Amino acid sequence: MGRTRFTQTGATQPLSSLPASALRAVLREGYSRAQLKQDVVAGFLVGVIALPLAMALAIAVGVPPQAGLYTAIIAGFVTPLLGGSRLQVVGPTAAFIVVLAPLYARYGLGGLLVSGLLSGVLLIALGLLRQGKLIEFIPFPVTTGFTAGIATVIAFLQVKDLFGLELASSPEHFAERLTAMWQARGTANGHELMIGLVTLVVLLIPRIPQRHLARLPALFTRVPAPLLALPLGALVAFALSRFVPGFHVDTIGTRFHTVIDGLTIDGIPRTLPSFTLPWNAPGPDGQPLGLSLEIVRRLLPSAFTIAMLAAIESLLSAVVADGMARTRHDPDSELIALGVGNLLTPFFGGIPATGAMARTASNFKFGGRSPLSAMTHAVTVLLAIVILAPVLQYLPMASLAALLLLVAWNMSEAEHFLHTLKVAPRSDVAVLLTCFFLTVLFDMVIAVTAGVLLASVLFIRRMATTTEGRMTKDLEALPGPLPEGVVVYDLVGPLFFGAAERAMGAIRAIDSTVRVLVFNMEQVLTIDVTGLVALEGVLEEMEHHGIKVMLVGVPRASRALFDRAGLVAVDGKLAFCDDLEAAWKLLGARLHQYERKQKGPVRVHVLNRHKLAIRRPRHMG
């Protein structure tokens, strides 16, 4: 089946065109039974891969594993149904761990769910306001820096379960968490580490060079690594616990318990997601959180962080999917759909969701070409809960930690990170490292805010260096030398607040013989109000010295700014001309005309696109 592009919506399209834009585009093009079969198979395989990931990510946040599964079901079905990307697979992701884990520790499950709900509202608002292109304004060093920082935090957080550490407390921040793990080093469990390493070795099989893979059984090359590694880890742990005295490792069943109708269930309950009000979930004190303006005010900053991270990661994932499938997603539709997904998920006990880049890439690899494959992935996770819930309780926590360790490594893109450090300009390296360390030591909000501000300041500085002004009395573009007392000041680059003073600096050195100053602005891209004020200051200074000014080639977009500022042609003070050639012809014609009528030296008094007034000096009578 051929790959077909569909046009990204513009800001002029009606809002009614946004919901389900990708699905409607697929159906308009014609959807065959063969493609449906291919999408169902791809969605099933992605769902099988997503199953352990959803549980592991929820556990890393601190909530029961079923919360991650419910997220993959609700948001994973609603978002592709209503979204603007054909391939996007939505669910819990590793990037959220560093945001949601401290939020859960501070406000409990209720605070986490309400924050997710509020983030859904913010995402819908972003989509309705047509802010889907916001990803274009996030500099690459910022996204690379905070992504690598998040991966670093996630990797270190897995040390606890990988080594079976028993922490006296679970601090929110990274440095304190490392200190707590170091203090608990004496509680390390070799059994946990062994199961984790066994799982990690199997997970790394696909990274073995291709020439060595041929020697392995076909099972290890055709089945996704997590589907082999996690069951193998569970089987090894179960067998050793039966035949080796004293052998014990934590599993989902021993770590998590759910009470339903007075009955305690180990691990994951074999029930479908049920509707509940998010604010009725327990807060930090174990009591229902409640809903009030004060609660919303306290949770809104966290909700904003979740929304921004969800938007950035989801739109990045959609861009990657476009590159693979040669399609174009609708960013506004995708944000609205993601907002609806995050708005609904908390009512079923799910955590925030966003586009999952690895699962989206797997969707394309397995043959998925429409939103139906991502929707099938959600149905697969739902069926797995109903069918496999009693078995999932035997998955070791160390195996899930090993899986997240690999996820963190893939997320960090360490080789690309180091390459960027090596080849990028020093200013970009400074932004990248700033975002990285702020993410690790503080949080992503501070990192992104500081990174964007620093990148903006450095960009302004870089652009300011491209703006320059130089004085000249001879231009190759003109057919002859300039008249005596006339000089041209060339301005090149944007005349904005970062460059205005620098660009005007050379004018201060103008000599006393100059009578006419021609500002050549043909290479000025834009002028802001700071540039305008600087220009007005120069014009006042020139008027004070009796020097007439001619503005040539003022950008058309800036003429309205000049008009509003009252900067118009005035006889004896200021003149405008469209280009240097027109100014030369006008100046030459007027000088020649005057020289035929008068005797003695002359000087240019006023240049104007309509007339050129030339006067005799006073000493000539």
How many strands appear in the DSSP assignment? 11
User: Major sheet: order of its strands?
Assistant: 5-6-7-8-9
Rg over alpha carbons = 33 Å
**Which ranges are low-confidence, i.e. pLDDT below 50, for 5 or more consecutive residues?**
1-12, 598-621
- Count structural domains: 2
Distance between the termini: 90 Å
Please state the structural category.
Answer: alpha/beta
Mean pLDDT comes to: 83
Biggest sheet layout: 5 strands, mixed
Level of helix content? 55-70%
- DSSP strand content: 5-15%
Compute the number of helices: 24
Could you please describe the fold and organization of this structure?
This protein has 621 residues and is an alpha/beta fold. It has two domains: 23-458, no CATH class; 468-620, STAS domain (Transcription Regulator spoIIAA). It is built from 24 helices and eleven strands. The strands form four sheets. It has a five-stranded mixed beta sheet with strand order 5-6-7-8-9. A two-stranded antiparallel ribbon has the order 1-4. Strands 2-3 form a two-stranded antiparallel ribbon. Helix 2 crosses helix 17, helix 5 runs antiparallel to helix 20 and helix 19 packs antiparallel against helix 20 (444-466). The protein starts with 20 loop residues before the first helix and ends in a 6-residue tail after the last strand. 44% of the residues are buried.
